[in-house]
Amino acid sequence: MSQSGSAPWRRPGWRERWLAFRNGTVANPAFQRWAAGFPFTRRIARRNTRALFDLCAGFVYAQVLFACVRLDLFGLLRSGPLPPDAIARRLDLPPDRTLTLLKAAASLDLIARLPDGRFALADLGAALVGNPSIAAMVEHHAMLYADLADPVALLRAPAGATRLARYWPYAATDGAEQVGPDSVAAYSGLMAASQALIAGDVLDALPLADRTCLMDIGGGEGVFLAQAGRRHPALTLRLLDLPPVAERAETRLGAEGLSTRATCFGRSFADTPWPRGADAITLVRVVHDHDDAVALMLLRAAHEALPPGGLVAIAEPFAGTPGAEPVGDAYFGFYLLAMGSGRPRTALELSAMLEAAGFVEIRERRTRRPLLARLLTAKRAI
Fold it and tell me: What is the pTM of this model?
């Protein structure tokens, strides 16, 4: 070992030597020009050039989407194609600026330009019309973009000094006494809108047929619990969230006709032990909002609250999801960093935490859209 205490030098393996050679070659401008013209490498070179440009221009693409949502362009085109001048009048924009927006949206496959010059919804735009929760998230991202204006400063800043941290006050406090009714109105509404997007996928995969009582932890306004109640008419329903959020859930569940089956507990989940009696506990997009110590506390509290054979379920986007790696590690990694709490975790990491909390029979259950939510279940030993 060297005098500085560092690890002893070792000869680089063949993989490291190959990577060094490849990276040095690809970084050479002369090679890049050659690869762009050589028939066998042209397609790869152009694909890589496009990928790099898309990374550079990604913020602009997102802002085009934001403008479409803010102006309700997709809603305007919902009833059928329109010519640019009619769209300009309806959006109250100058014709030339309208055409700039329309061409940009068409290039992103949000809308389509027809041969006669009119513009119509494309598949992506139509999907946004059918999922208003996505539009709510697009609007919400204005705060995230503000926090990411200087990403290096964000990486160096202490947790909690961001707009997102102020928007999600529970992430920093974990205390019911510090979160009032006014502060939860905006974020609980956003949670309700976005939760509706994944609730069906999770419930399709979640085995509740043999359960008698479901308690949803951090359940927000009760969107997930309401869908579970409609699918399983014999299921008793419970929700635990901060007092002002639980009050909103009580109102929603009452409007859904579920008040006789549902009980809402207004308290912080940090106040353990949790109410007993549920034989299934769900944590839907809750665990990744919290750092490891709090996340493990959640799982241990769930284990303590469940009877032998009781079921716990974690549903959220996971890090390392095949084909959607940037969603977990890039998007949620930086979103949670800006929020000041939590991190995306892989299925293996979450499984290890469940095991550490005392659970057995840990398994992943396939969901329709794993990019949006994957599902792990486990049981308390009999």
Answer: 0.83
> In the numeric block, which tokens belong to residue 108?
């992103």
Say which residue the tokens 């705060």 belong to.
143
158: left (phi over 0), alpha (psi -120 to 50) or beta: beta
First to last CA, the chain: 51
Give the C-alpha distances (Å, rounded to integers) separating 254 from 218, 221, 257. Answer: 18, 11, 5
**337: nearest Cα among 152, 63, 125, 64:** 152
Six-digit token string for 231 = 């699918």
Distance (Å, whole) CA 310 – CA 39: 60
260 Cβ neighbours under 8 A, 6+ residues apart: none
Angle value at C-alpha 77, between 73 and 79, nearest 5 degrees = 145
H or E stretch at 362: strand 359-365
How far, in Å, CA of 239 to CA of 231, rounded?
A: 17
Segments of the chain scoring below 50 in pLDDT: 1-4, 173-176
Tokens 């329903």 correspond to 237
> How many C-beta neighbours within 10 Å does residue 376 have?
22
Taking only the tens place, the pLDDT of each residue in 118-162 is: 999 999 999 888 777 788 888 888 889 999 999 999 998 876 678
pLDDT at 159: 67
- Nearest Cα to 314, choosing from 345, 276, 339? 345
164-193: pLDDT as tens digits: 888 776 665 444 455 555 566 566 666 766
The widest CA-to-CA distance across the chain, in whole angstroms, is 76
pLDDT number for residue 112: 97
pLDDT of residue 260: 95
Do 321 and 371 meet the contact criterion of CB atoms below 8 Å apart?
Answer: yes
CB atoms within 10 A of CB 33: 11
**CA-to-CA separations, 151 to 121, 145, 167, 297, 338, in angstroms, rounded:** 34, 10, 19, 30, 9
**160 in helix, strand or coil?**
coil
